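[Solved] Which block belongs to which protein?

Original post:
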Amino acid sequence: MNWLTTLGLLAATCTTTSFLPQAIKVIKTRHTKDLSLGMYALLSIGLCLWFAYGILVNDLPLMMANGITLIFTVIILFLKIKYK
C-alpha cells in the first residue's frame, strides 16, 4: 500500500467516524428536530455519487469512506423522516 492510499484511508476514517456520534445519538434519543432534512438528503445523494465514482475509478479510500458514511447518513435521514 502506497502513502497516498494510506493518507486516503486515514482521511476516510476521520470523516466516516465523524458521523457515528450523531447516528448513535439519534438512534438512542429519537430526537431529530434540530437536524436538517435537506442537508441529510443532499449529503446522502452526494455520498452515493462519490461512492459510485470511487467504484468507477477503483479507489478503495473513496469507496470505503463514502459507502460507510452513506450508511450512517441514510440511517439518520430515515430516522429524521420517521420521527418528524
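(Second protein starts here: sequence line, then its C-alpha cells.)
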Amino acid sequence: MEYFPPALEELVEQFAKLPGIGRKTAQRLAFYLLDQPREVGEGFAQAILRAKTAISCCPVCQNLTEGEGPCAICASPKRERGVVCVVADPKDVVALERSREYQGLYHVLHGVISPMNHVGPEDLRIGELMSRVAGGGVEEVIMATNPDTEGETTAMYLSRLIKPFGVKVTRLAYGIPVGSHLEFADEATLTRAMEGRREME
C-alpha cells in the first residue's frame, strides 16, 4: 500500500540517499520542504544545480573551488608556498582552516587507500601531488589523514613516494583531547600522545 503520492515518495527516497539520513528523517525533510512556499523549494533546487555546475577541483591542490583557476588558498600571496598539508577530503581543509594556525598550502586526495572498499592509489589524486613535489619548491609535506587504518596506510604509502625527492615528510601529532582524562584514553591514543610530546616553554 502506498502512503505517499509518487512525487513525495521520490523526494523522500532522494533525501534518504544522503549520508546520515534515515527514512524517518528523510520524511521529515520532505514534509518540511512541502510546507514551505514554492520559492523556497525552487531556491533549494537551484542551489543544488548551481553547486553541481559551478564547483570544480582546484587545478593546484584539488580542493573544491568555483571557476577554472586556482582556489583562494592557492592564489593567496600570504600562504607559505613551501609547505603542503595532505588531507583526505575537502572538509578536512575547512577543519584545519578553522584553527587559524596553519598558513601553508593543501593537497586534497579525495579519499584514502582502502582495499576493503576497492579504493587503490590510482583512485586518488596522488599523481597531482607527486607532480607538485617533483616540480620543486616544496620543502615539507604534512600528512594529515585520519589516524585510522586507512589513513595510516595512505600516509605511509605517500611518505615512501615523496622521501626520494629529498622533501621532509611529517605526520600530525595525535593525542589526548583537551579536557579529557588519561584513564579514558585508549592505548593507540596514548602512544601517539607520547610520540608527539614536545618540550615545555
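Accepted answer:
You had them paired correctly. Confirming on the second one: Residues 76-173 form a domain with the Dna Topoisomerase Vi A Subunit; Chain: A, domain 2 fold (CATH 3.40.1360.10).
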